[in-house]
Design a protein that fits this description.
Number of strands: 5
CATH class: Alpha Beta
Number of helices: 6
Oligomer: single chain
Shape: globular
Largest sheet: 5 strands, parallel
Distance between the termini: 58 Å
CATH architecture: 3-Layer(aba) Sandwich
Structural class: alpha/beta
């Protein structure tokens, strides 16, 4: 059985992420999508919410499941018996960083191979950071994320807006 791990912060999951998941789900018998904690990022959604969102938007693929980790992704992959790490790439600017990460992962776990999968061409400009930035400004981002994620973004930014008004006394 070919098990692969696709890890990222997924804060939140985008249409670009889903295009990588869709392609990886066809390539591997099982795909474990992992919300990895990145100490350099301040997430909008907690890890549990991100795993829940991933579960909602990947249920159409029976061979895909989601979890989270605070440790090294290669350690989780090894524990689960995965032989492959999936890395999504949006374009040339992603490749250099992804190759560097693949080299580090290979040094930590030479028995686990990294497979690069490009997002669908029309989604190469989509990132979670850009998605959150646009959504926070009220821009329609429905093209860049699934409806379940869009609803959560709208609720989150509506709550933040209300809290901001309370602070200002409005």
């Amino acid at each position: 059985m070919r098990l692969a791990v696709y890890a990222g912060t997924f804060d939140p999951v985008t249409a670009g992420h889903l295009s990588v998941i869709e392609r990886a789900a066809r390539l591997f018998d099982r795909l474990l999508v992992v919300v990895a904690k990145n100490p350099g990022k301040e997430p909008l959604f907690c890890a549990e919410e991100r795993v829940e969102m991933l579960g909602e938007v990947t249920k159409r693929w029976p061979n895909v499941e989601s979890t989270s980790t605070e440790g090294f992704v290669v350690d989780l992959a090894r524990e689960r018996g995965a032989r492959y790490l999936v890395r999504g790439v949006r374009g040339a600017t992603d490749v250099e960083g992804e190759i560097s990460l693949a080299n580090v992962n290979h040094a930590l776990a030479p028995d686990i191979e990294t497979v690069f999968i490009p997002a669908h061409p029309g989604l190469s400009e989509v990132s979670s950071s850009r998605l959150k930035e646009l959504a926070s400004q009220g821009v329609d981002v429905s093209r860049y994320c699934p409806p379940e994620v869009l609803a959560r973004l709208e609720r989150r930014f509506a709550v933040q807006s209300l809290k901001g008004n309370d602070v200002l006394g409005v």
